[in-house]
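Late entry, nicotinamide-adenine-dinucleotide complex.
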Amino acid sequence: MKTKDIEKNNPWQRALLQLRGAVQRTRIEPLLALRLANPDRIVQVSLPIRMDDGSVRVFEGFRVQHNDIRGPYKGGTRYHPQVDMDEVKALSFWMTFKTALIDIPFGGGKGGITIDPKKLSQGELERLTRAYTRALAPVLGPAKDVPGPDLNAGSTIMGIIRDEYSKIVGSDTPAVVTGKPLGEGGSEGRTEATGLGGSYVLQHFLKKRKLNPKNMTVAIQGFGNVGSYLARYLHEAGFKVVALSDSKGGLYVPGGIESIEAVEKCKEKKGMLTGCYCVGSVCDASNKDIVGGREITSDEILTLPVDIIVPAALENAITEKNAKKIRANIILEMANGPTTLEADAILKKKGITVIPDVLANAGGVAVSYFEWEQNRKNEHWKKADVFARLKKLMDNATDTVLRVGNTRKVSLREAAYITAVERIATSASSKR
Ligand code: NAD
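Prediction complete; structure with ligand written out below:
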């Protein structure tokens, strides 16, 4: 594939280029390279359901099982209007590399339904999730493929998948899915895991680079599960979180947002982050009498004068258009695939350090692995134990990426891919 043939911003094409880079830098067998460039299995399903008003509609669902050399396919489930096959293929590919990078016994998979969940009632979403589970049941299972949560598909949806799958196989099977509610076989700490994992990676990275996090300014795009927990943990660790945004806009408080909780409450109350944040003399509304806070757009947040920016929403947030304007020195990629290829090249030229998604957001799948292990052993671990194990995994993976980056003189993203490809190759050779 020639670079000029690559469709701009297509995540699957980008994934293939990332693979090509890693293959060129390692000595993996051509057969393995070819296997990694093609998902093991692609499942596309039609999901007809009855709507609340009695009408019937059909939705489109996907599950891509990218690779299982290192263990069962593992990856989230996304409910979003932009879900399509190339997106799910790319996301499943990144899971294969993420699980290998943090060295857990899983491969990579991903699924999704093309849908705007905000337009469906709870009952409709439940019927759709049950239909999706029935359609995929033959290829799922604790030792085959274990879905987890992703955009707009949280613990409630995961609980429904477990319930429907268990009915189909005639035996309660909590380990078929992770990210379940606590009382339904979920793990302590799974909800916080991705944000917390990202904060561990960032802190370990800064420690190794001998940089003091105290008062470093951070702007976070996306205030859902990942962004909100990350904000909370970074704030607790002494970082100065100055800007937050979601799909409806955001707020910027140059002196530091004093209470992440106040923003959370605002979102709960109003469905958006702005319009009720006032702590001390700082409010988000543009008011000449109030020093500090103001409302910003979600795009603006990435080009603010801060030390660290965090894309924690969708793919392709950082493009060739805004990359040139980025003023931060560090980018912590909490979303999957937030940086386009062109943007990556610009950032590299500008000397901006990118902590890649496959490392930064791997905390979610790490605790999913702990949940799967607890379910299979019929155990329930304490939150402190889960967090201690998570920290160990994330610190180790960060150390490895930094070491490979240094010794091979490559970016952290390239180092992450080299590490993962070599691990996959080792597992493949031991299975021959
Ligand atoms: P979520 O649905 O809980 O939250 C998504 C957030 O992004 C919401 O606040 C939404 O308003 C915001 N958003 C949507 N479009 C936006 C835009 N154009 N600009 C700014 N904000 C926008 O989802 P999540 O679970 O927090 O996932 C966020 C990202 O992290 C996704 O890329 C996902 O793949 C990735 N991720 C999630 C997990 C996990 O465990 N949940 C694990 C690894 C990676």
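The pocket of nicotinamide-adenine-dinucleotide is lined by residues 149-152, 194, 221-227, 245-247, 298, 312-314, 334-336, 361, 364 (CB under 6 Å). Will revisit in the morning.
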